[in-house]
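pls ignore typos typing on phone
5-O-phosphono-D-xylulose + seq
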Amino acid sequence: MVEGLAAYGVEVREEVERVREVVARLHAELPRWGLVVWTAGNISQRLTTADLFVIKPSGVTYDALTPEAMVVCDLDGVLVDGDRSPSSDTAAHAYVYKHMPHVGGVVHTHSTYATAWSARAEEIPCVLTMMADEFGGPIPIGPFALIGDDSIGRGIVETLRASRSRAVLMQNHGPFTIGRDGLDAVKAAVMVEEVARTVHVARELGPLVPIPQRDIDSLYARYQHVYGQGDSAPVLTEEGLA
Ligand SMILES: O=C(CO)[C@@H](O)[C@H](O)COP(=O)(O)O
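k done
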């Protein structure tokens, strides 16, 4: 029996090499944006040529997260290639890819303000145009779930299916974000921390003022379809975002 990546064609193996580099480079963005401490947090990206994804190994420091250190798993979270244990959140990432076919990237962090809202099991209300733009409404809370089976993945998928948000705050745990690829999911992770911090500060100052639903809808539609430079969104180069 042919095992591991040898069972896949050359096109898949070549994509694995490319995505290993992308996912390694993306991990450097997490400390750069202040979203992680020590070895907390993880990023994955799905392949387009096979039902596989690349994710970081568990408990390895960010400086050591080279392309070669990355591991490849299938959509049941089973290790297919790599010589280290996959991230402890691999089953959650796998569940998301298996049940949300449009998702190409998943990010999990324990960023401080977003995780503080998780600790309170309180959704972040949509009181900023930036939230309406990026998340299309409040950022929801997902259920409490333990690592070990597909509970975290189920909680993420059930919560996100009921929302326009690309971020879910898993209760007592922290944010998980999704995107069309790893970079897009990292952007959502940066944004969720920013709005979590701003709304927290605003609430310290006094009552929050909600945005009417019709305005949220209008802001969301504009940001999704009009904002920016069309197809030339920022990309991740060896020098960083360009
Ligand atoms: O939430 C957890 C563990 O409870 C994880 O997100 C860790 O913070 C990072 O784990 P690895 O990806 O290094 O296994």
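The domain at 4-225 is CATH 3.40.225.10 (L-fuculose-1-phosphate Aldolase). The beta strands are 42-46, 52-55, 71-74, 79-81, 105-108, 141-142, 167-170, 174-179, 236-237, 240-241. more later
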